[in-house]
């Protein structure tokens, strides 16, 4: 048997972990230890979920599954490269305890709970199977933040009990056993960082974060040295002092924040102080915290910009945008009643509308001076929708009539740049520079006014994907300074230089949505729902974020354009529930093993009603010098996000083939370090660490993404840039589904409880263990069944796949269509699944509802995907089948593991990996990015 065949055979029996780790060694030692103290366990394997003997038939090419050409290529880790780190490390495990300060040991009941820390359970290396297995673990138990360490997968719905450390939905670490030194961290080849989603929806009945009122002196309790906010790990003492958990400095407690101490070492008012009980709270703050000192904060202001140029009117996107604006304003009137809105439409001129409620009819003001825009009026420019709904509707009707009937007045030019300047001027004038939200549509390349771009095509002469236009770079900076965020809806497949026109979106943490080949009857529903969803997700603005760490660690960089990917505190002009930030950390000094390291994110922001607050999010990890325990408590999601963000922010000249080689090399280094330092197994077996078992699958899928396609013919096309900008706006669950879509078959035999909700709140979708194999469809051409029926979800769109051989009774039960109706005549009304009252239809609806909750979307469009029927079929399938080999020779997932295993063996044979042994480098500081 050839070497390649031997390697291929080993892939079919991937080890879940090093057998030595699960060989029935010593169980965890039970002792009283501080909250989340050092984790040191060697436990037995927990059996994975059972499988049924179902075998998926192979699909013939003639059934419409020919693999379309895929022009995918990868790229490199740019910038500083991979820093291995150096330092002195002890290789023996140490059980540690938290250092004691003063007479009192704890500031909350969770200071020394004596609970056993839960060990992450083994799951499959197959992504869809792992998702089912992980969800099953949280059907009958909650995630307890003082007992559990590594959080569930982002695609898992779970209940969380905040016991003094935050819900991991809000903030999670990449390592919960933190290496004691940079050398030991470098030996893992993994980044130390944190992923923050401050306003993630919490599963438990949409529980809200408590708000802490202003104390008598008007300021929250904070450390005088590091300025950390009071939290459950503040240690209060009997001498009216407090020890900061971040910097360990002891200070006197101000009289207005002091309280008698009980014999148990706890404050007598502990149960009244939620900031000392819960890991996440909102503090009300005084005017000294205002974004503009001399001005009181205002409710959020919106400006809607509608492109009414010729092409936008012809494809119906302008009318869809009008309907979207109407729906958004109705939502604002009902759920954000203090916010104000303004309307501007543009083509080769700017049209402003007076929305004063006392007017009889809509008043329109036309400005044709585009080089030096001005406001034709002030009063009535912004109004509260609840007061002016009649005149707003009249205005929208007038705009619709112009689009539909006054066709001889339509012009092809669009003054996009001038329109953005007008919106900024309106917000600056009315709010006094306090910011707001601009929601804009664009259908063609801007060719008139400020910021006009010459008509051109993407000729691949420019290798990089950075904005070079001085006007848009300056405008984006001005937006940021004024706390203005831009959402842009692009409704044409023609080249519009998206990297330039989308630059203000990128800089202001806005959202860009792209609808190529826009068709009103197909895409209008999706656009309207996207607009309403994005408005409903807004929770605040004027935000400034800062991460504080215990002594020994600090921020290396925030992956955020507003901070230029440095350690400067990022500005987020407008916050949404999906706003997610990744932060890379660095070592300043070696940390003592056996102690806890604390992290606090402080987010200063104004809510949509104009109330200034600080949201504090607290968590902690344990310091370890045991490489085995460090690998055991890795959190894959932040690791994956930081690796991807590091690639994106250092693209350079976009040599994607080189970038792919560097990503592959990084994955080989990670697994070689694990194999060389942790696993003692035979070298003929490929071993993936339990904690990052599916990381190779996700990184390979990233290499095959639209962003990473070959750039010989096109470097700055709409699809590539849209994919690039999406990575900045996706939360963790959306990113996981984007990289590796979830495929659910409905033609297989299902148990009665399969795909039904386990809990009364309809949050936890359950699956019988015996059904997991049937339901775990890998994202590969060979796993599709001719005549099957699948729901496929890739983060923002659900595809319903079936072909002419699909059981017609199944389609009738699922879609309520006649058996005799040809499949090319089947359609979905408003892009949604009909309610038929059948069991299979209910299960499909449950799956869709679960996906909506997981990615925080009120609605998700359902699109038919039929071979030999839908024109977009080949293109979509090439994006969905991330395990298959691409036309540009990016390997299939199985072959990728085989090749990677051979490279790991070669490195091990050459002894080419970082050793964990005492060395004279223990105080070397990290100077480069941690890759």
Automatic annotation (TrEMBL):
Residue stretches making up the Sec23/Sec24 helical domain: 635-736
Molecular-function GO terms, alphabetical: SNARE binding; zinc ion binding
Basic residues bias locations: 29-38
Protein transport is among the record's keywords: yes
Keywords of the record: Cytoplasm, Golgi apparatus, Protein transport, Transport
Cited Pfam families: Gelsolin, Sec23_BS, Sec23_helical, Sec23_trunk, zf-Sec23_Sec24
Biased composition, class Polar residues, residue ranges: 40-52
Gene Ontology biological process terms in this record: COPII-coated vesicle cargo loading; intracellular protein transport
InterPro entries, alphabetized: ADF-H/Gelsolin-like_dom_sf, Beta-sandwich_Sec23_24, Gelsolin-like_dom, Gelsolin-like_dom_sf, Sec23/24_helical_dom, Sec23/24_helical_dom_sf, Sec23/24_trunk_dom, SEC23_SEC24_subfamily
Region feature Disordered, mapped onto this chain: 1-52
Ranges of residues in domain Sec23/Sec24 beta-sandwich: 540-623
Family: Belongs to the SEC23/SEC24 family. SEC24 subfamily.
Protein name: COPII coat Sec23p-Sfb3p heterodimer component
Species annotation: Saccharomyces pastorianus
């Amino acid at each position: 048997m050839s070497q390649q065949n031997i390697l291929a055979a080993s892939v079919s029996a991937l080890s879940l972990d090093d057998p030595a780790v699960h060989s029935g060694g010593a169980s965890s030692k039970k002792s009283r230890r501080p909250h989340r103290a050092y984790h040191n366990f060697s436990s037995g394997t927990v059996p994975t979920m059972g499988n049924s003997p179902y075998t998926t038939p192979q699909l013939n090419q003639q059934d419409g599954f020919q693999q379309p050409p895929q022009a995918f290529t990868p790229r490199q880790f740019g910038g500083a490269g991979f820093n291995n780190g150096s330092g002195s490390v002890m290789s023996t495990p140490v059980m540690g305890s938290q250092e004691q300060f003063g007479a009192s040991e704890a500031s909350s009941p969770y200071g020394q709970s004596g609970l056993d820390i839960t060990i992450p359970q083994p799951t499959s290396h197959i992504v869809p199977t792992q998702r089912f297995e992980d969800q099953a673990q949280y059907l009958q138990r909650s995630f307890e933040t003082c007992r559990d360490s590594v959080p569930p997968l982002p695609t898992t719905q779970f209940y969380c009990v905040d016991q003094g450390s935050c819900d991991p939905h809000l903030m999670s670490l990449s390592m919960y056993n933190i290496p004691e030194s940079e050398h030991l961290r470098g030996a893992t080849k993994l980044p130390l960082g944190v992923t923050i989603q401050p306003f993630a929806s919490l599963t438990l009945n949409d529980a809200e974060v408590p708000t802490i009122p202003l104390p008598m002196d008007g300021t929250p309790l904070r450390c005088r040295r590091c300025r950390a906010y009071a939290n459950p790990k503040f240690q209060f003492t009997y001498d009216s002092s407090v020890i900061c958990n971040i910097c360990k400095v002891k200070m006197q407690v101000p009289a207005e924040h002091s309280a008698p101490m009980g014999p148990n070492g706890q404050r007598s008012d502990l149960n009244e102080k939620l900031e000392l009980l819960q890991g996440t709270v909102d503090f009300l703050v005084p005017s000294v915290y205002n974004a503009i000192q001399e001005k009181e904060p205002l409710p959020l202001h919106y400006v809607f910009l509608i492109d009414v140029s010729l092409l936008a009117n012809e494809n119906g996107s302008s009318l869809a945008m009008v309907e979207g604006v109407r729906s958004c304003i109705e939502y604002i009137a009902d759920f954000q009643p203090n916010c104000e809105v303004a309307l501007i439409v543009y083509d080769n001129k700017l049209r402003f509308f007076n929305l004063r409620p006392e007017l009889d009819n809509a008043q329109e003001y036309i400005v044709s001076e585009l080089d030096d825009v001005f406001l034709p009026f002030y009063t009535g420019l912004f109004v509260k929708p609840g007061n002016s709904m009649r005149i707003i509707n009249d205005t929208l009707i007038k705009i619709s009539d112009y689009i539909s009937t006054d066709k001889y007045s339509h012009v092809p030019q669009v003054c996009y740049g001038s329109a953005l300047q007008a919106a900024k001027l309106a917000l600056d004038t009315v709010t006094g520079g306090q910011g707001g939200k601009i929601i804009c549509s664009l259908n063609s390349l801007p060719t008139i006014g400020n910021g006009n771009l010459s008509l051109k095509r993407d000729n691949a002469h420019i290798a990089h994907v950075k904005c070079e236009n001085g006007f848009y770079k300056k405008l984006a900076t001005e937006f940021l300074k004024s706390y203005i965020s831009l959402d842009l809806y692009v409704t044409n497949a023609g080249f519009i230089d998206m990297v330039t026109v989308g630059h203000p979106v990128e800089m202001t943490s806005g959202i860009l949505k792209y609808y190529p080949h826009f068709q009103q009857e197909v895409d209008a529903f999706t656009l309207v729902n996207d607009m309403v969803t994005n408005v409903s997700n807004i929770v605040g603005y004027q935000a400034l974020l800062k991460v504080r760490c215990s002594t020994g660690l600090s921020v290396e960089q925030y992956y955020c354009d507003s901070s230029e990917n440095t350690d400067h505190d990022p500005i987020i002009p407008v916050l949404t529930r999906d706003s997610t930030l990744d932060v890379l950390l660095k070592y300043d000094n070696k940390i003592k093993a056996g102690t806890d390291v604390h992290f606090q994110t402080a987010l200063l922001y104004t809510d949509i009603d104009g109330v200034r607050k600080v949201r504090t999010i607290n968590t902690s990890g344990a310091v370890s010098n045991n490489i085995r325990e460090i690998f055991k408590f890795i959190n894959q999601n932040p690791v994956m996000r930081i690796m991807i963000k590091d690639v994106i922010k250092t693209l350079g000249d976009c040599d994607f083939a080189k970038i792919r080689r560097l990503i592959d090399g990084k994955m080989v280094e990670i697994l070689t370090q694990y194999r060389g330092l942790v696993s003692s197994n035979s070298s003929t077996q490929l071993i993936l660490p339990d904690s990052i078992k599916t990381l190779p699958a996700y990184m390979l899928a990233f290499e095959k993404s639209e962003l990473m396609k070959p750039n010989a013919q096109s470097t700055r096309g709409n699809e590539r840039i849209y994919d690039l900008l999406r990575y900045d706006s996706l939360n963790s669950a959306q990113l996981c589904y984007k990289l590796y879509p979830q495929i659910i078959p409905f033609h297989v035999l299902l148990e009665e409880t399969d795909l039904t909700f386990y809990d009364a709140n309809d949050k936890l979708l359950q699956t019988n263990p015996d059904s997991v194999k049937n339901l775990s469809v890998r994202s590969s051409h060979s796993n599709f069944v001719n005549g099957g029926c699948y729901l496929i979800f890739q983060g923002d769109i659900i595809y319903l796949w079936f072909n002419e051989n699909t059981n017609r009774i199944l389609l009738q039960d699922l879609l309520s269509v006649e058996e005799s109706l040809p499949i090319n005549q089947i359609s979905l009304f408003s892009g949604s699944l009909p309610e038929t009252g059948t069991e299979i239809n209910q299960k499909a609806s449950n799956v869709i509802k679960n996906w909506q909750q997981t990615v925080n979307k009120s609605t998700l469009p359902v699109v038919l995907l039929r071979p030999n029927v839908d024109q977009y079929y080949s293109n979509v399938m090439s994006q969905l089948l991330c395990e298959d080999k691409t036309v540009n020779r990016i390997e299939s997932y199985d072959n990728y593991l085989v090749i990677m295993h051979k490279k790991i063996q070669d490195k091990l044979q050459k002894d080419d990996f970082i050793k964990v042994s005492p060395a004279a480098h223990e105080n070397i500081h990290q100077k480069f990015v941690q890759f």
